Each structure stands twice: as C-alpha cells, then as structure tokens.
Amino acid sequence: MTSRFILVCVLGLTSAAKNNAATFEDIFSKLPTGEKIWIQDKSYEANRLRCIFNQKVQLIGKSEYIFYQGHQSGDKIVKVTAHGKIFTTNIAGKTKSAMNVSTGQDPVKTYILRFWDKREHCGVVTFDDTDGKKQCELHATFEIRRPYPKCLKRYRDHCQGVQHIINNDNCQ
Predict the structure, then answer these.
(1) In whole angstroms, what is the distance from residue 58 CA to residue 115 CA?
(2) 136: confidence class by pLDDT, cuts 50, 70, 90
(3) Does residue 156 surpass a pLDDT of 60?
(4) CATH 2.40.128.20 holds for 24-165
C-alpha cells in the first residue's frame, strides 16, 4: 500500500508542545472513532489511488494510535491496519509532533505534523521516502475538496509546490 498518513490528521491547538502547535494526540483525541481523515494532495506520484483516507480505530493513552489506512480500488474499499507511536521531536529548534507508523507490510515510517489549522480542519504532514527525500501530504477532515487557503499555503511552503491532487469524488 502506498505510504501515507493519517493523519494528518485533525482538529485543535494545544499547549502540549512547546511552540503551542497542534499535536497528533490533539487531533486524534478530538476525532470520533470511525471518522476519516482524507488525503487531498500529495507531493509524490505513487499509484493513482482514489479516495485515500486514514480512519480512526482507537487512541490508547496519549501516545498510541490505531487506525486504518485505506483507499478505493474499483468498487471496493481496501483497508490496512496501522499502528502509530506518537512522540515529539526537535526540528530546527522547534518542537514538532511526530508519529512512527507501522503496518506490518512496509518499514516503519516517521511522519511529522508540520501544520494544522483548527478552523479549516486540515494540515500538512511530511515524511522521508526510501530515497531520503522529503514528501508531503495535505490532510483534511472533509472528503470533497473545498477552499483551505492556509493549508494550501503551508503545503506549498513545505513541498516546493509539487501537488498531485487526489480524486475523492464519489467515495464510499
């Protein structure tokens, strides 16, 4: 399954991180069980998948997140169970929320939450691909694309404008 994340995931600001930025734990704790976070844009072009999402299964404590990574394949929804370990990391002097994600199929991948907007319900997540190149995803709590100017600006800032829009129309 194509690497991607969840998360990005989703919903609020907190003072848990030193720079008062949103954390994965903040987003996931506010996301109802079964709710999906949709990948709207990505900087890489792995497969032409449709309806890419992460669906909350359970948040255990403040540091373990279980979710489905899913996409639509023809008329079927394909889901893989993923396990995330949430932690903080220091990047260029700033505390960022991070998550190591494993699916049992792919190597563990570390996702960094670069930005989350609680009003637009969207954010930017990055990870390093197998070649060590930074890749980006724009995550949102809404399925169908709509205006989210702050998130798009941050996405373009982090991803040098490379944008592959995901088709989330008519998803199941």
Answers:
(1) 23
(2) very high
(3) yes
(4) yes
